[in-house]
Design goal:
Layout (H helix, E strand, L loop, with lengths): L1 H21 L1 H21 L2 H16 L5 H19 L9 H25 L1 H17 L22 H6 L15 H4 L36
Helix pairs in contact: 1-2, 1-3, 2-3, 3-5, 4-5, 4-6, 5-6
């Protein structure tokens, strides 16, 4: 059921790519509205909205509605915030759950658009991956369910980051309907995405806010 809904939503997003071919102002409106919604979600710490909107942006990039470089800038903004949080001198490692959430959101987008980023902006994409590896090397290594899908676990036989990377970030369960529209979408004029700002200081935790970031299940579908 979840897979069917994801396929329908993904198809709807790619239809925006077709609309952008005829009415670029409509495509720009979608991008600008998504920017406003994402900034609001980040400020209000709405975990579900942040995750969904980042995936939405990734699919818009695949549909030639969003500039690949703009998506990379969004990822790097989240990376920078995460790295600052876990920095012993500049940040507050006690809020690692928020930083982990940001990184998990980036990783969860890659099966939806990692292959396209590798093809279109390889150097920028490599920079993001180096940043993720650097973050993982400095974060405190405590078990976090949000990262479990990227950890080797032969018993559960779940995909991990290395396996997905070796497969070009392609996952069979992730719908890619835009491939059948590639010939048309290639003529699209993608739009820029304005900068986003992450909160400098985490708010006091609540049962459903920052403290639970790293505990939320990171679903690829």
């Amino acid at each position: 059921m979840r897979s069917t809904i994801a396929s329908q939503i993904s198809l709807l997003r790619h239809l925006i790519g077709l609309l952008n071919l005829e009415k670029e102002d409509l495509g720009k409106l979608v991008v600008d509205t998504t920017h406003s919604n994402l900034q609001e979600a980040i400020q209000s710490e709405n975990c579900d909205s942040i995750r969904v909107l980042l995936r939405f942006l990734t699919v818009l990039m695949c549909s030639k509605v969003l500039q690949p470089a703009s998506l990379v800038v969004v990822f790097e903004t989240l990376l920078s915030s995460a790295a600052t949080i876990v920095d012993e001198e500049k940040g507050n490692p006690a809020w690692q759950a928020r930083a982990d959430f940001y990184i998990s959101c980036i990783l969860s987008c890659l099966p939806w658009g990692g292959a396209e980023l590798m093809e279109q902006v390889p150097e920028e994409f490599d920079r993001v991956m180096v940043g993720i590896q650097a973050y993982l090397s400095i974060r405190r290594h405590v078990f976090d369910s949000g990262f479990s899908i990227f950890v080797d676990n032969t018993r559960d036989q779940k995909p991990n980051e290395k396996d997905l990377s070796n497969n070009g970030w392609k996952l069979e369960s992730v719908p890619r309907p835009y491939l059948s529209l590639k010939a048309q979408l290639v003529a699209g004029n993608p739009h820029d995405f304005g900068p986003i700002i992450c909160p400098e200081q985490p708010r006091l935790p609540s049962t459903t806010s920052s403290i639970s970031y790293g505990r939320r299940s990171m679903m690829l579908i």
